[in-house]
Amino acid sequence: MSSQNPKPKKRLNLDLTPEAYDLLQKLSDESGKNMAEVLRTGLALYGIAQEEKDKGHSLAIVDTQTNQVVTRIVTT
């Protein structure tokens, strides 16, 4: 049986405004995820939004009770 080696992770140095840092800290605290996990999740969501935009679709927040679009998420 051969073991698979995962791809090595890349390190990133990131400068954030105090407001962006505070939001990241808040999201981390509320979700129970560390800041890196929050950033990875955000990046994945942005990737989905961009892929759907390229297909002519959009990403939206939908009220599950009314099935109405509450917010449409647009990437530029």
Q: Tell me roughly what share of residues is in helical segments.
A: 40-55%
Structural class assignment: alpha+beta
> What number of domains?
1
Percentage beta strand: 5-15%
**What is the tally of helical segments?**
2
User: Span between N and C termini?
Assistant: 46 Å
- Low-pLDDT segments: none
Q: Overall pLDDT, averaged?
A: 92
Care to describe what's here?
The protein is an alpha+beta fold and 76 residues long. The chain has one domain. It has helices spanning 18-31, 35-54, and strands spanning 59-63, 68-73. Strands 1-2 form a two-stranded antiparallel sheet. The mean pLDDT is 92.
Q: In terms of topology, how is this protein built?
A:
Layout: H1 18-31, H2 35-54, E1 59-63, E2 68-73
Antiparallel strand pairs: 1-2
Give a quick rundown of the structure.
The protein is α+β, with helices and mostly antiparallel strands and 76 residues long. It has helices at 18-31, 35-54; strands at 59-63, 68-73. A two-stranded antiparallel ribbon has the order 1-2.
Please tag this protein with its features.
extended; 76 residues; alpha+beta; 2 helices
